[in-house]
Specification:
about 325 residues; globular; binds adenosine-5'-diphosphate; 4-stranded mixed β-sheet; binds magnesium ion; about 35% helix; alpha+beta; 7-stranded mixed β-sheet; single chain
């Protein structure tokens, strides 16, 4: 059966979830209406994924649906917000029922996992692209900003960096790896990044600033430095790199991935020394896994990198859409 725009909405996206108590209207009216609970801020974020730019041609709709939601949730995580609502605007070259069925099943799987409600969207015909907006709540008036890093804050990153890039290059057959298990693991890191929602919530009350690493550590940390009008010293030996990368690739290669390639969707955050004990307690309780990689300095935008106590000069800054 061929579906038109209205059939697509009603068959694959409408009435797939129960409304939550703050939702007055959802899909089916001209706008969605949401009640914002008292003493909350609304965090709003949008990301577009375009075929051939943000995801490879012929990406499985299951993976595409997961990742387009996950990368948006990562932005809410970096603000310390609780995900609540989502809108989905899709542009597709044709109405392919099989593709839509797989997409929508995977889409609602991740929505339900994070207790997100789909409240609206748009459906169009054209080159494949997915635009998602997510809406989250932040209790009180403290959130995690890029602009609040302070001199002498310690700089941390969650998880490990570079594996998503390795997975992407494996998918593109630009690199090869014999070990099928590690190969599949790295590809999964690329296709199924885990948004660090719980970590963001935990950091909201103890970190001074945060950003999610979508474009590479250098570029994203650079945003914190610029917004906060400060600099940083980073020790490259401290960048968390997994055994999967260390055992299979040269250090020049995995460091390049970790620093410049991005799509890890880990959090980079800065924390004042007075809160380190609280952070260490959470690390001990396994509520967060993170590594200290350096500290903030007062010199605006100056990023000093060292490795084995030697200064390192870099000539790249990260993924940039227009160069
Ligand atoms: P309008 O013409 O007023 O923009 P649409 O026909 O585009 O309305 O959409 C009708 C309803 O369906 C709206 O509530 C809209 O938010 C929702 N909607 C459209 N496309 C999607 C989609 N892909 N996913 C979820 N809701 C959608
Ligand atoms: Mg519309």
């Amino acid at each position: 059966m061929k579906y038109n725009e209205f059939n697509i909405i009603s068959k694959f996206f409408k009435n797939q979830q129960k409304k939550d108590k703050n939702q007055i209207t959802g899909i089916g009216d001209d706008s969605a209406l949401i009640k914002i609970p008292k003493n909350n801020m609304l965090a709003i974020s949008t990301d577009t994924l375009v075929e051939d730019i943000h995801f490879l041609k012929n990406t499985n709709p299951k993976d595409l649906a997961y990742k387009s939601v996950a990368v948006n949730l990562s932005d809410l995580a970096a603000m310390g917000a609780i995900p609540k609502w989502i809108t989905l605007s899709m542009t597709m070259p044709k109405s392919d029922a099989k593709w839509l069925k797989i997409f929508s099943k995977s889409f609602f799987n991740i929505l339900n996992k994070y207790k997100l409600k789909l409240i609206g969207g748009d459906t169009n015909c054209g080159p494949l692209s997915i635009t998602i907006s997510v809406y989250g709540l932040i209790h009180g008036n403290k959130s995690l900003l890029r602009s609040n890093a302070k001199n002498e804050d310690l700089i941390y990153v969650t998880g490990s960096l570079g594996e998503s890039a390795a997975g992407c290059f494996l998918l593109q057959k630009k690199i090869f790896l014999r070990n099928i298990n590690i190969r599949n693991f790295l590809i999964k890191k690329h296709l199924k990044p885990i948004p660090r929602i719980n970590e963001g919530l935990l950091l909201k009350d103890i970190a001074n600033s945060a950003i999610d690493i979508s474009d590479g550590l250098i570029s994203d940390l650079g945003h914190i430095l610029k917004s906060s009008k400060c600099g940083a010293n980073i020790d490259l030996n401290k960048i968390p790199i997994s055994k999967n990368l260390k055992n299979n690739f040269k250090s020049s290669q995995y460091l390049d991935w970790a620093l410049h390639t991005g799509e890890d969707y880990e959090l980079c955050f800065t924390i004042p020394k007075k809160n380190i004990e609280k952070l260490n307690f959470s690390i001990k309780k396994k509520l967060i896994q993170c590594t200290c990689i350096g500290y903030i300095t007062p010199i605006e935008k100056e990023l000093n990198l060292t490795r084995n106590k030697k200064k390192i000069i870099l000539n790249k800054t990260g993924f940039n859409h227009f160069i």
